[in-house]
Amino acid sequence: MRKTVLYIAMSLDGYIADENGKVDWLDGENEEIESEDSYARFIKRVDTVVMGWNTYYQVMSELSPSKWVYEDLMTYVITHRENKSTDNIKFIHEPLDKFIREIKLQKGKDIWICGGADIVSQLLKEDLIDEFYITVIPVILGRGISLFNKIKKELKLLTCRKNGRMVEIIYERKENI
Predict the structure, then answer these.
(1) What confidence category does residue 176 fall into, taking pLDDT thresholds of 50, 70 and 90?
(2) Which residue of 27, 60, 68, 137 shows the fewest CB atoms closer than 10 Å?
(3) 7 bridge partner residues
(4) What's residue 27's pLDDT?
């Protein structure tokens, strides 16, 4: 069975975006990354990306407006909005937990849970995230969009690594032990 993997960056105080939904505080952190690129290693193990509408819109309008950055992956956008799907971007209107359970059973590589916080919260409540790749950025925002809002979950630490000024932490669900 395919794994669902949350791969995301957050501020030191646990936010994935500032109070206006912006992620411009992530800029400039890549300057000090050591030669081993965790994203390059990670992206080789997935062929599917799942995100909410807000994350999709942010990628399309702010982060990469000229080119879809996940063109080599099958992208599923969880939304109530009516949008026209393409060959590699599908807009999904069914319940998230049902959809994730279905695609986990399909053949393929692992599934990247890209964001946002609401998608993560729903999947955590249903215990549908198998691994957590979290990069902690050395910025304290003070407020914003919390990655783990009102969720209690015990995880098992797999690895922790310094990468320039950032820390990469990998956990798995405790149930996988």
Answers:
(1) low
(2) 27
(3) 133
(4) 64
Distance CA 111, CA 86 (A): 19
Q: Is 56 exposed, middle or buried (0-12, 13-18, 19+ CB in 10 A)?
A: buried
Average pLDDT over every residue of 138-166: 92
Listed residue (20, 19, 16) closest to 115, CA to CA:
16
Contact 117, 16 (CB under 8 A): yes
Alpha helices for 106-163 (secondary structure H): 117-125
> What single letter denotes the amino acid at residue 156?
K
DSSP H helical ranges for the chain:
38-43, 53-58, 96-105, 117-125
Written as six digits, the tokens of 95 are 């319940």
